[in-house]
C-alpha cells in the first residue's frame, strides 16, 4: 500500500513539473546535465590545484587563492544550470565526478593542441590523483618536481580546460539554438565569461613565461 502511495506522489509531482515545461525537450535537458558534470569537474580540478599550491613544498599562496576562487566560480556555474533546468521544468541528474577524468581530458588537450605548451601531460593533476604510471614517466618525473615550473604548468592546464569547456558550451548553444531563452542564458551568463577567462589565462601564461621560474614566479604569485 505504501509503495502505491509513493508512486502516486511521484506521478503527481511529475505532473506538476510538466506544467512548467514548455519547448524544453529531453535532448536539451540531457545536454544541460552533461554540462553540469563538466562544470563540477572543473570545480573539482581547480580545488585540487588550490590544495597543490598550498602544499609546504610548493608554497605559492597566490596561486592557491586563485584556484580556490576558480573552483567556487565553476561550482556556481553548475548551480546556475541546475536552477535553470528546474526553472524550465526539467530533471536535474547528477553524475559521478572523478578528478582522473579531468586529468585525462586536459592531458589529451595538451597533447593534441596546436598551441605551444611546456608539457604534453597534466603533471600537477596526475600528481593530485597519485597516478604512479604518469608520475614515473619522462614528462612528469615526480623526482624532478622542482623543474616543473608549477605556476606556468597550472595556467597552461587551465587554458586547455577553459577552452574545452568553452567548446562544449558552443556545441550546446549551436545544437539547441532553436530554444531562444536557453540561447540567451548561455550567451549572457556563460559564453561571455568564458571568452574573458580564456583571454585572462592566456595573458597570465605570457607573463609567467616572461617572468621565468624562481623569483619571477614568486613575484607573480604575490600579485594574484
Walk me through this protein's architecture.
The chain is mainly α and 224 residues long. The protein has a single domain (24-223), classed as Ferritin, core subunit, four-helix bundle (Ferritin, Up-down Bundle), CATH 1.20.1260. The chain has 9 helices and no strands. It has helices at residues 2-20, 26-53, 61-87, 99-112, 123-129, 132-135, 150-175, 180-211, 215-223. The radius of gyration is 20 Å and the shape is elongated. The model is unreliable at 4-13 (pLDDT under 50).
Give the radius of gyration: 20 Å
Give the proportion of residues in helices: over 70%
User: What's the number of structural domains?
Assistant: 1
The tally of beta strands, per DSSP, is: 0
Describe the global form.
elongated
Largest sheet: none
Overall pLDDT metric: 89
CATH architecture: Up-down Bundle
Count of helical regions: 9
At the first level of CATH, what is the class? Mainly Alpha
Name the quaternary structure: single chain
The parts where pLDDT drops under 50 for at least 5 residues are 4-13
Find the CATH topology. Ferritin
| SSE arrangement, N to C | HHHHHHHHH
> CATH-wise, what's the superfamily?
Ferritin, core subunit, four-helix bundle
Q: Please identify the structural class as seen in this structure.
A: mainly alpha
Topology at a glance:
Layout: H1 2-20, H2 26-53, H3 61-87, H4 99-112, H5 123-129, H6 132-135, H7 150-175, H8 180-211, H9 215-223
Helix pairs in contact: 2-3, 2-4, 2-7, 4-5, 4-7, 7-8, 8-9
